[in-house]
Amino acid sequence: MSITNTSATIIQPLPAASSNWLRDLVGIAIILAAAIVGYFLFPNNLALLTRMIAIMLFVLSLDLVTGYCGVATLGHAALFGAGAYAAGIAAAHFGVTEPITMIAIGAVGGAVAGLVSGVVILRGHGLAQLVLSIAIIHLFHEAANKASNYTGGSDGLAGITPDPILGLFEFDLWGRTAYVFGIVLLIVIFVLLRILVRSPFGLLCRGIRQDPVRVSAMGASVKRTLIKMYVISGVVAGIGGAFNAVSTQVVGLDSLSFTNSAEALVMLVLGGVGTLFGALIGTIVFIGVEDFVSAANPFHWLTIVGALLIAVVLFAPKGLYGTAAALVERYRKGGK
Amino acid sequence: MTALFQVDRLKKSFGGLDVTRDVSLSLQKGDRVALIGPNGAGKTTFVNLVTGHLRPNSGKVLMDGEDISTFNPMLRVRAGLVRSFQVTRLFADMTPEQHVALAILQREGKSGRVAGTFQAMPDVMRETYAILETLNLVGLARTPVSEIAYGQQRLLEIALAMALRPKVLLLDEPAAGVPHSDTFLIENALAQLPDDLAVLMIEHDMDLVFRFARRVIVLAAGEIIFDGSPREVTEDARVREAYLGSYGHASSAA
Amino acid sequence: MQTFFSIGVDALAYGMILFVISIGLSVTMGLMRVVNLAHGAFAMIGGYIASYAARDLGLAYGLAVILAVAGTIIIAIPLERFLYRRIYGAPELTQVLMTIGITFCVIGIANYVFGPTLKTIPLPPDLQGPVDLGFRTIAAHKLFAIFCGVAVALGLWYLIERTSFGVKLRASVDNTAMAAALGVRTKIVYAASFALAVGLAAFGGVIGAELLPVEPYYALRYMVTFLVVVSVGGAGSIPGALIACLLLGAIDTTGRYLVPEYGEFFFYLAVIAIVWVFPRGLMGRAK
Ligand SMILES: Nc1ncnc2c1ncn2[C@@H]1O[C@H](COP(=O)(O)OP(=O)(O)O)[C@@H](O)[C@H]1O
Ligand SMILES: [Mg+2]
Fold it and tell me: Which keywords does this chain's UniProt record carry (chain C) (predicted)?
């Protein structure tokens, strides 16, 4: 193989790597800019923006298994809810009120729920997989409902009073601290996920989404890879859930509901499956519209979600971000 | 001496149809074997059986004397038994560079890494491009597979198999769908395979078979009817009857 | 002994209702390979129509049933034509999204039109009260449900095994392209089976209203129940669906009797256990 050396000099690994980092920086800048704009545009509605951040983490986590690995699941709220309850119970019953510790406990709770869900859901394929995913979210919901000593059952879990962050920043009445804390969390996780999805592991997951048979013919374990991704996804969703518990100081049973799972899927699809930006944009648009509509007429919300879903499937199967990205790509190619 | 790869009395039937009947064969290090036979003879089924993509009714598969019959496809690959697919199976959104790099990473046990990129791993990049170069795919290295021609996708199939550095390589019609003008690329690739690798190639192109193989096995209706040298295959009466009867011109071409 | 008998009857009645509702789903999934999460929504629409006809308009029960079935089919036809046809052969996620979207719309609209409360369908006098079987008495409506289940199973078996429509249906299930090449108008077969499936769902929704009460979240509450029948019984298999329904009926009813507090918990646990044990369905068919 005498060509080895020449080809190594032809292809410089550096440009790809540095352009990756550049795009990460642009991504961080966009998130920061949006956060600042949101802060000044809706100073009285920071709670809504903060909830958006928690849900963004949840939808990002769903994107990892659905978008990057191709697992269609309707039970992903189990991971989010597990994180929320883990953090909430730690605070309300065991006096663990240090916020960063609570987030870490939520991450562990989410990871455990991710492991359990992953093992169960990946047992089947196709319809069986879907059935397992729906059954598991109902199972978690019922379990939380019955364990009301710890979870507060259908009344929800209250009495979560987090300490100041690092002992310095107290959670204020206007939710400024929670908002800034959320943005920091989001940016950290976004960067880590960017690294994850372009890592060898991320590449392997993309392969599994497209052809699991080919992946196993390469000698990789499809199942073990997917379960690992489920655990990672659980960490992210768990952090989202825990952050929601910290910022709202309550955990409701609806965080573990089928509807919550389905709505996360809607947000993901709305934004664009398989891209991190898609997950973020889908969440912003969905929760923005939800807030607007339920202010006008809460009755029609479910109908609108349904119609939105149908419309996305029919007219923008790549989602908002995916469609926009495709347009830009075509424009670029045309320009060249 | 135990064979590197041995198949022992493999049987498979679909419903009532016996597709593999008592097939036994063995390969030694460095073997270059062509498996030929009319369409529907059961060649692809044979590959699916030995690589674990189908479960046989009975029979055993051994690597280095170890029984791997209970292994799933993944474990068989790790034992050194690698195949290519007759109908290309690739990742449509991914580039040839990513395909080959992924196979190398997998082989080296690095595919589970959650940080870093293969572009930043000089060894992986060097080997990736060496393999792509062999198959003349460097120009397309960063084009998604869905946008490259089928013939070149076939070459990428072979690139993947090479990247896994198997001990035994089963190629299911590697040249099917490759334009005739490009089959030399496949022959080049085959010529660059390590000497101690055992290769079994299913192929219809008799020119290619006669140039490549030092041993030919003929499968007809699920049974091995011939196992010998390329010179003898054209003279064997049963082969003539079962196979060359319909491909008479092929013998004259050789 | 008395409890045992009651559990048995209830389980049988519940299982038969499940069968009537889900068998249509099974047939269409076998035929069109569409994961239809909205199937329960059609049962619910049937229930609402029957309730409106019998309770608000005071029509006879039999008439209400017919109106419900016909009305649901009429509602379903444009849905099939404009929405479902777009997702035949689409990836699973697309099908899930579309049919969840339809489910949400139906729930939202039902909530708006009929309100969030339970709707009853008044039974005719013959189906109220107990029936004396000689050694035991059982509720007439349960007996009726069991009877309907058996009738639907036999009727479907006859339709599929003995009629020319059945031949075309089976051919299309086995190999759509081949059936089309042989002159079967598969689009019509699709549409007819879809109508049949929806009609059966509506019928099951009406006769099962005593056990599965009609309310807006019906379509979500029982979604997994209907789907698991198909997943375990195997898409397109009548005996498979029958066995799966009886099994689920038995589990659900036993749970309710023995541990009423944790009934749903054990039901979902059982669903997971069953699918875990039979990930490819009872008949072991891949995909
Ligand atoms: N999954 C299957 N189910 C039923 N029959 C099959 C299946 N796979 C292959 N066959 C049949 O087995 C026979 C051998 O097929 P195959 O191994 O693909 O032949 P070849 O590769 O030699 O052309 C053919 O008659 C084919 O129809
Ligand atoms: Mg073949």
Answer: Amino-acid transport, Cell membrane, Membrane, Transmembrane, Transmembrane helix, Transport
